[in-house]
Amino acid sequence: MQSEAQLESNLIKQLTTLGFESVVIENAAALKANLKAQLERANDIQLTEREFDSVLISLEKGNIFDKSKRLRGKVDVVHEDGTVSYLTLLFADASKNIFQVTNQVTIHGKYENRYDVTLLVNGLPLVQIELKRRGIEMAEAFNQIKRYDKHTFGAEGGLFNYIQLFVISNGVNSKYFSNNRELSFKQTFHWTDAENNKINELSNFADAFLNPQHLTKMLSRYIVQNETGKFLMVLRPYQFYAVEAIVNQVATTNKNGYIWHTTGSGKTLTSFKTAQLLTQLDDVDKVLFVVDRKDLDYQTANEFNSFLKGCVDSTANTKSLLNQFLGRAEKGKSVSENRNSKLFVTTLQKLNNLVSKSHYKKQIEGLRNQRIVFIFDECHRSQFGETHQNIIGFFRKAQLFGFTGTPIFADNATAKKVQNKGVQKRTTRDLFGERLHSYVIVDAIRDDNVLPLAIEYYGKVTKKEQGLDVDVSSIDVNEFFSSPKRIRKVCEHIIGIHKFKTRNQFNAMLCVASVPDLITYYDTFKTLKQEKKHKLKIATIFSYGVNEEEEYQAAAELQQVAESTPQYNGQKLHSRDKLDEFIGDYNDTFGTSYSTKDTASFYEYYQNVNKRTKHGEVDILLVVNMFLTGFDAPGLNTIYVDKNLKHHGLVQAFSRTNRLNGTVKSHGNVMCYRNLKPQADEAFTLFSNKQPIEYIEVPDLGELTEDFAKALEALKAIAPDVQSVDALPDENAQSGFVKQFRILMRLKNQLETFSDFDIETLGISEQEFVDYASKYSDLARELKKAPGEKASILTDIDFELELLQRDHITVGYIRHLLQTLFEEPTPEAREKKRKVIANLLATEPTLHSKRELVESFIEDCMAGLAQVDEFDEYVANKKRQEIERFSAEEKLDVQKVHDMVFNIEAGLNVNKLKSDDIATLTTEKMTFRSRRTILPRISERLQRFVATFVDGF
Fold this sequence. Notes:
The protein is built from 36 helices and 25 strands. By secondary structure, the chain is an alpha/beta fold. Among the domains are: 4-222, Alpha-Beta Complex (tt1808, chain A); 237-444, 3-Layer(aba) Sandwich (Rossmann fold); 701-785, Methane Monooxygenase Hydroxylase, Chain G, domain 1 (Up-down Bundle); 811-949, no CATH class. The two termini are 34 Å apart.
């Protein structure tokens, strides 16, 4: 077995082949002497002892954070003749740095410590590597570094506090992390290649990560100093590859691109580092980071400034953005304060004003040919309107990049109106071009960068004794879901499980389908609180309409409605009135004074709700759409869902719960009160597939024209002219008109994407179409409100909150996907689903051992040698065959192995089996020496067997 000393020796030999000089440095005195020599070499300077002593005094000042900032600046040297020069401690160009490797440096502090392998750059110790022999957990090396930091890193001049990166390895596994005293072992990272494949083995890790060129990049570009917390951060590999890809794209091309990094993977840090490095390119004039909400403008600017103090000033309004573009000083500020850098954060709305309103456009006309790089946050939801066209139409050299956790693909694209192009379906690739890097949800769960999700589905409808005799298509589904009786049951269920799901230390969100439903929910929680059923702090925020109908009851009278009072004569309220009522409750709880009286007060309320929810002061935040994207609260671990979600909306909402928060938060809870399982399966399948369909097939013009002509003929048969719509005899005829005109609208929207489309050639004028559209809009609204169109079933059913299913990404989940795989109608669809399953197997840690087993089963099924419903039998046969093969190769009693496997399946812990337990399986006598090699090998094989055939089944 390779010893720790051998591991150390081999690493040093390898590093010398990579360009490191091997040096012997025994103690702090030798370290300082070597530092003087290397600084002189790197800076082409000679220092007297007195001059170097003054340098050491400068280097000793401050803490780890201060020294990290000094490392990237320059150190003054006052020479004995009175002249001043400057020392560079770290060059961004690797060829200018001097790389050395040493080992077993001894430092005396509170205790004496000797460090394994130290990497020096220009004489300063910047990377410390701690090794453990194979078989020892890396956590021991991590804990050892923590001990060194506490006892000796700051001693004898404190030069070891210049360390930027730590590396820990046991030969088989290797990880890195920044010099941050507050880190836990969970915040240590594996290095990977650009495809997110881990590079674990120490020699491979050294080749990829420790070579001078890459190490210089990590030290000079990818260590971030968090100004708010005064600690160091280092980018993870997927962040590194994303930044490098965009910077290279800007440096070498004029093409756009986008980054797909799953929700919760640290896109803000990635985009900040991208923006910062782009501002350093000479031919880039400005970098704009664009968000789609005012709160994100403020939040992102704060986060950027926490990474680099004063690097950006968020724009308060469009005029401020204009001043930043023009480099003009605002009132009370100097020009330098307004133009702290080439980087600024703004909202999509302010940017659109700048490039679309004539009085702003005139003032920035001289900037049209500047090279401006735009970085769009959450680009899946913000870039499919007219703003995109306005930007690229105005700035001739604009280069656009998007970040998203849930891109728009062909499978989740929706039709939206595009300026001068009608209604189109467009993907993220259509707007931003090539996908430059991907890091999907299963990658993040595998790497412990986000938490897994536990999804539970609740809700069951049962008939009452008289049964149901209603056509299913005519049932008023909305009435059922919005029923106060049902909502009260959901509220009572939430109250009953909340403390168990949040463990009395986290908080939750509840997202519902509409503002009316939200109001019913809030008032129900309020009533239940008055009934002493709970003590939870409930808060809410939602958008209200300006010209909506009055349709909400006063809170005090909700109980009458819940009890089905036959008549209600209370005052009707706008949703804004209800929101003010709810904000009043919030003010009473927290001693605040917000309202909706003006935009500023409402926005302050929004920010306060945001802050208190993040800090855990709100137990349940009740929302419709707000906070379901872009809201990052590590202390939130549960979301209650009572609305229909799908695709990116579902993943975004569920992902509010799975942010890391120390070691006590193990997973995110998703409690669904609607049957969202098909939608969840589809969404996680889509966003786990690294080869999604990114192009939408363009329809044939001739076929569309023919379809439009047929649809128009059918419409004219119902209503030959616009006036005849008023004469339609009954609701069935009116409904027929609405449905047929909807078909005609859809076809017209598709035809408008063609440049040579002319509606006049299709038998209807534009004016006639618009007139029909007006009739359609009014009639569709009347039919929607018409009483009796939908049958009520509330008196015929009972709604029961029963746990229907609980999902984790396990063998059971894979088994379900296997079933859906062979239900796909075409070979192409089956191949697509097979790739998704293969990706899950490759990236979900708990399924690694089962990868070969499942893939061989799929191959047998596709070859007709097995049926999908025979998976359990297939596994049982493979398990029996493996026991027989394992027993024969290791000379074991096969029946005893079967018996032991049976006991393990019954609860025996395979990891706690003793050597004597393993020895009872053998059929041959072993010597004392052979026991030391044979029994550990059998134990390891048995553990692998259990991981493949027992765990998770």
